[in-house]
Amino acid sequence: QSEAVFRAMDTNSDGEISLEEFTKGLSDAMEGEEAAMSESPALAAFRELDTDGSGFIDLQELRVALDAAARARPSEEVVEAIFREIDANGDGVISFEEFARVYAKLEL
Ligand SMILES: [Ca+2]
Ligand SMILES: [Ca+2]
């Protein structure tokens, strides 16, 4: 993996990383990190809810999250109603796009 990083930084492919190439590579990496940070409140929350890392939040994952967030355990009806509300296209899973739309409203 470090070899891939090396090759990515060695932009003129002469087998050596010049100081210029190194600092350029480093600042590119930092910029990527910053971009990830700025988009991340919704993404971080989504990842937290997507406990199995499937890229989607299913009903079970939402139930666990609501159980943890609510003082009183929400009823199954309430969980399903909230799920349907967020699952805009009704495919039975919450995508990040669907989640982000709701999250943006919460953040107001
Ligand atoms: Ca999941
Ligand atoms: Ca959906």
Automatic annotation (TrEMBL):
GO terms for cellular component: organelle. InterPro entries: Calflagin-bd (IPR003299), CML21-like (IPR052591), EF-hand-dom_pair (IPR011992), EF_Hand_1_Ca_BS (IPR018247), EF_hand_dom (IPR002048). Residues 1-32, 37-72, 74-108 form the EF-hand domain. The keyword ATP-binding does not apply. It comes from the Eukaryota. CDD domains: EFh (cd00051). The keyword Calcium applies. GO terms for molecular function: calcium ion binding. Keywords: Calcium, Metal-binding, Repeat. This is EF-hand domain-containing protein.
